[in-house]
């Protein structure tokens, strides 16, 4: 079988990569060891959160499946950061695990250019220093001009439960990948090990909910849709609460007493784990004076009583896990349905990649997801989009696509890992972006539809949806600028804000900059319509209210573009540039940045080095 692009692995990175390449018109072969686990939520059944929720919207704006599947599977929704204002709101959803997986497969299969294949990849086919396809353990061979590897934690994965249980696996009950990882090492790719983990699951019927704090869904308060492109009516989505409890002194004592039996602290694991999703053992050791640690009991689905114990990730032995659960308020009689475990796996330091996520030393090979040292479904999906588009563009001999830091969190993620590397599993936060006010969850369509349209990835219906959304925003902004509001109309709204009353009529757009008053209320008071698109209203209001901040961010983005426009040749002789510091020469030679902007984000490359680098490159070009 021949294809333009082969994608190895059908998790969050793999499915997004396959769909992205297919939307470009590429013929895609999506290979997975088990077709029944496409789109599996391997860890907690949740999507979104701070920064991550914005990434889901960005993936959707580029035609991805993550937002669509989340819409079809949401059983609990929260809008985080509500107390901080809409500019930093962060959507988060609990998903029905089974419905999410089914929705992802359905969304992938809607793309007729994607062929699904079950089997295990044995090796890459390399011809004349370029990737030309793959071979399978069963003897089949598939040829393609580009291959995207998205094997997650399956690369030489080892599962640990306590110090005495160590089995090969990429996920509980599924075999690890060894043949392909051995070949990548032979090809010269640097490889390191990371660690992650998962908590036990419990039977909700064995929980004393009277001792827990409920956290209700807010879906109907917001009527929230993750996908701005797929606007068809959704089936009824019953909602479920989450529940909050805590690890207190009695449970902490269990961990302290048995910590030597933990795989992490008993010496079985030496790899680095995620700082922002630590095991319960890590929490007890690193924060010994913390009075308690919060746990969330999250529903796994509508058709099961199983609950995910978020915050209790562990590699303790099974009997210790049960002892620990029974020391948690409300879980004294909890029945454990699945034990938690830790998993070690191979990853390839992403400084070996181009900003396209293509392997610098092996044209046609792309890596995406946890294989690049990241953690999280959303981070994996974002990389799948980047790798999938660029694999499709490579296969069809079109120019590559590079996402900017100023246009998306996707661009921040890729730039961070490629330019700076990772020393622990990378996770996105709003603090990683210099443009977090202009790069928001509500404006993903306006930011990214231009890219999608340039690539030609949208259906006719999606084009109409985009036009309607952008037109609604433009019309609303114009109405706010052109509608005046009088003191008599405005003052009743201003009384509760503590701001001065109006002295004379003002455009609504000007008054909307005041805190405590909404654009919708002002338009209504002035006798004008706020329109029917609630999200367009949020976007326009934010653009008006924070206009001064946005101007500064966009000026900063323009400076970044000027740096990015100064291209650095692939074969520049950095070692010979004696005006640069030794550290800068060594790191530039190893990283091979494609622009001055990328060079600026390499640790150890100083502003003086950057100035001298421009002179050195211009001198080299003249020579």
Outline:
The chain is of the alpha+beta class and 623 residues long. The chain contains 21 helices and 23 strands.
Molecular structure report:
The chain is an alpha+beta fold. The protein has 4 domains: about 5-195 and about 345-455, FAD/NAD(P)-binding domain, CATH 3.50.50.60; about 200-340, Elongation Factor Tu (Ef-tu), domain 3, CATH 2.40.30; about 485-550, Arc Repressor Mutant, subunit A (Orthogonal Bundle), CATH 1.10.10; about 565-620, Orthogonal Bundle (DNA polymerase, domain 1). The protein is built from 21 helices and 23 strands. The strands form 6 sheets. The protein has a 6-stranded antiparallel β-sheet with strand order 15-16-17-18-14-19. Strands 6-2-1-10-21 form a 5-stranded parallel β-sheet, covered by helices on one side. The protein has a 4-stranded antiparallel β-sheet with strand order 12-11-20-13, with no helix packed on it. The longest helix is centred in the last third of the chain and has 23 residues, at about 460-480. The radius of gyration is 26 Å and the shape is globular. The two termini are about 50 Å apart.
């Amino acid at each position: 079988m021949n294809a333009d692009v082969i994608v190895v692995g059908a998790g969050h990175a793999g499915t997004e990569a396959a769909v992205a390449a297919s939307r470009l018109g590429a013929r895609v072969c999506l290979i997975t060891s088990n077709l029944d686990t496409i789109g599996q939520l391997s860890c907690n059944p949740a999507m979104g959160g701070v920064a991550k929720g914005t990434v889901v919207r960005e993936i959707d704006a580029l035609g991805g499946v993550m937002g669509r599947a989340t819409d079809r599977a949401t059983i609990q929704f929260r809008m985080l950061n509500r107390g901080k204002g809409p500019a930093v709101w962060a959507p988060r959803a609990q998903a029905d695990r089974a419905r999410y997986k089914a929705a992802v497969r359905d969304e992938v299969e809607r793309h007729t250019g994607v062929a699904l294949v079950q089997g295990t990849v044995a090796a890459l086919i390399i011809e004349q220093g370029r990737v030309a396809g793959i071979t399978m353990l069963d003897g089949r061979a598939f040829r393609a001009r580009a291959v995207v590897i998205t094997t997650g934690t399956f690369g030489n994965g080892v599962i640990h439960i306590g110090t005495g249980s160590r089995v090969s696996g990429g996920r509980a009950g599924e075999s690890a990948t060894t043949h392909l990882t051995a070949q990548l090492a032979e090809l010269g790719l640097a490889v390191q090990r990371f660690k992650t983990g998962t908590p036990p699951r419990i039977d909700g019927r064995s929980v004393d909910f009277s001792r827990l704090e409920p956290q209700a869904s807010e879906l109907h308060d917001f009527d929230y849709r993750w996908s701005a492109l797929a606007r068809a009516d959704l089936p009824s989505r019953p909602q479920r609460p989450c529940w909050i409890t805590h690890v207190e002194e009695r449970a902490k004592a269990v961990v302290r007493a048995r910590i030597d039996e933990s795989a992490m602290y008993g010496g079985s694991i030496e790899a680095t784990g995620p700082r922002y999703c630590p095991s319960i053992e890590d929490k007890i050791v690193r924060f010994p004076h913390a009075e308690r640690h919060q746990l969330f009991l999250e529903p796994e689905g509508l058709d099961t009583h199983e609950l995910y114990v978020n915050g209790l990730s562990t590699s303790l032995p099974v009997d210790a896990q049960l002892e620990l659960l029974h020391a948690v308020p409300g879980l004294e009689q909890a029945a454990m349905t699945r034990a938690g475990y830790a998993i070690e796996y191979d990853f390839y330091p992403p400084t070996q990649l181009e900003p396209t996520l293509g392997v610098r030393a092996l044209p046609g090979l792309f890596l995406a997801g946890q294989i690049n040292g990241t953690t999280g479904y959303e981070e994996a999906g974002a990389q799948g989009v980047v790798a999938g588009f660029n694999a499709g563009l490579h296969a069809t001999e079109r120019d590559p696509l590079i996402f900017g830091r100023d246009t998306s969190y996707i661009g921040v993620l890729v730039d961070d890992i490629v330019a700076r590397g990772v020393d622990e599993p990378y996770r996105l936060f709003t603090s990683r972006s210099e443009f977090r006010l202009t790069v928001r969850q509500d404006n993903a369509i306006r930011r990214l539809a231009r890219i999608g349209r340039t690539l030609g990835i949208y259906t006719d219906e999606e084009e109409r949806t985009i036009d309607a959304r952008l037109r609604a925003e433009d019309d609303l902004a114009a109405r706010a600028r052109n509608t005046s509001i009088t003191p008599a109309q405005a003052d009743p709204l201003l009384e509760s804000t503590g701001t001065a009353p109006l002295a004379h009529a003002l455009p609504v757009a000007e008054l909307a900059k005041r805190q405590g008053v909404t654009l919708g209320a002002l338009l209504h008071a002035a006798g004008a319509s706020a329109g029917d698109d609630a999200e367009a209203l949020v976007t326009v209001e934010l653009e008006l209210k924070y206009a001064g901040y946005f101007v500064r961010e966009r000026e900063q983005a323009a400076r970044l573009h000027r740096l990015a426009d100064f291209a650095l040749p692939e074969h520049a002789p950095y070692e010979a540039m004696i005006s640069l510091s030794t550290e800068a020469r060594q790191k530039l030679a190893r990283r091979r940045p494609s622009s001055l902007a990328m060079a600026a984000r390499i640790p150890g490359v100083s502003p003086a080095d950057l100035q001298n680098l421009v002179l050195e490159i211009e001198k080299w070009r003249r020579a």
